[in-house]
Amino acid sequence: MDSASPADLLARAVVHFDRSETVAARDLALAVAGSGVPALRAQALTLAVKCHQVLDELVEALALAAEAFEVCWAIGDTASEAVVHATVARILLITSDPVSATAEIMTALEVAEASGDLTALTAATAIAGVVYYYLEQFDHCFEFCERAAEMARLLGDDNTNGAMIDTMACANMCLAENARKAGDEPAALALSAIAQSQSREALSVARRTGHRRHEVTAIGNLAESLAFCGRADEALEMLSEWRIEPARDTPSILTHYFATHGTICLAGGRDEEAIGHLRAALEVAESKASEMTAAMHLADAYERHGDLRGALDTYKIYHSLSKAVASEAAQRSGHIAVVRMDTTRAKAAAEEERARVTALQHANRELLRQSLEDPLTGLANRRHLDELMAEGLSGRGILLVDVDHFKRVNDDHSHMVGDQVLRLLAGLLRTACRSQDTVVRFGGEEFAVLLSNSDLPDATVTAQRLRAQVAAYDWDSVAPGITVTVSIGLAMGDESADPGVVLARADERLYAAKHAGRNRVHGPAPAVQPAI
């Protein structure tokens, strides 16, 4: 790893991936995954899984996917988790497990929707389109591809947009071939024309973004659709104009190019040219599966050319490769089954741990709430008031509110009625105050109101309004004969830098209000408001 930061290296890896420089992208992503930064590690592992899949390193991809899931679950990165699910779905499809692939892509879409991340949702929707293409459920394929292309355009993601357009081109060519087999040639040619238009658009996008793998795929698909409608010479001319760039073109790109060129030559009766291109495809093939396909077509080319010895020798190669591919597939399926089992267990453990942490957090929040709340009235308590006052009282006012003759209520009507009076009084105070003000049960029958953004005139008006509303309330509805009033002491936060001094002054003025006859407000102004 060079001196660049992990974040810069990850950004560089993404650029490599977008340019189809998959090996470089994989190596950088794996380097960043070891950096120890959880958020970057999740994203790097996700990218590395995608790289392994593109490089046909499927066992490695699934093993890394299990690790990626654990990191995503640990930090709650549902966006990256969705992309990993989508990539796993594609791998399962490649390994001939369509049922699991379908279930996995549905999970990817659900997780992506829940994440609210448009990039993750676009990636999952795009792979859903590919999954349904390989399942030959073309209605679903078009639906998901069109949706993914639209989201990609919103994001400015040209690579995904182009890939979706070309996937729809492939689907239209499948429908064209079905139409030809059914004897409906006009429909076959019409669908092929649509596919050609889509492949041309995808080719234009790939060339604009510099994505070589998408470019050669679009060229190959366009050439095949041209050959399908009798324009093989035009297709071959277009393929011949494409120039190989050894420094950029990976074995998978070259294999696709040579194989496409060869099969079109073979279909057009140009056997010698077909043999040359198919031999080249066999030599550069990135996997045994690709070698096997190239060998099969090459054997056909030799046979059609009359070279039976070459056909036999190549068929032997094909037969040997087919056994190797079957053996590898069986071994890979076993590895994949183990990895998926481990992933399932890890997910269950992660979900159990997440549920435990969530329950603990809920319990902690509840304990915190209880520690700051008065159980009788539901108001904030003295501890909460102390915390708020510690933040400073500048620009604030504080009211201390005490129920006049509250002992008589308890003595004459019972403590249960007294508690009901306190609960109703708490509601009156809360209703009469602004949302930014805080009403507190200070203790016993005493309440406090912390006023935000208030000067003395405003605080005085508020205090008088509280006092008047309490006096005007129909307390007979609680118990016949009850009269409830309050006395209020007012202090302003700017009277002292010490919150304790401000609170003490409000307390002094509360007692002054009581000594002056109760049911009144005393504040810093040298005046006693008359009772109403």
Automatic annotation (TrEMBL):
Residues 394-526 form the GGDEF domain. Gene3D superfamilies: 3.30.70.270, Tetratricopeptide repeat domain. It comes from the Bacteria. One of its GO terms (cellular component) is plasma membrane. InterPro entries: Diguanylate_Cyclase (IPR050469), GGDEF_dom (IPR000160), Nucleotide_cyclase (IPR029787), Rev_trsase/Diguanyl_cyclase (IPR043128), TPR-like_helical_dom_sf (IPR011990). Signal peptide: none annotated. One of its GO terms (biological process) is negative regulation of bacterial-type flagellum-dependent cell motility. GO terms for molecular function: diguanylate cyclase activity. PROSITE patterns: GGDEF. CDD domains: GGDEF (cd01949). Pfam families: GGDEF. Transmembrane segments: none annotated. PANTHER family: DIGUANYLATE CYCLASE DGCM-RELATED, REGULATORY COMPONENTS OF SENSORY TRANSDUCTION SYSTEM. This is Diguanylate cyclase (GGDEF) domain-containing protein. It comes from Actinoplanes derwentensis.
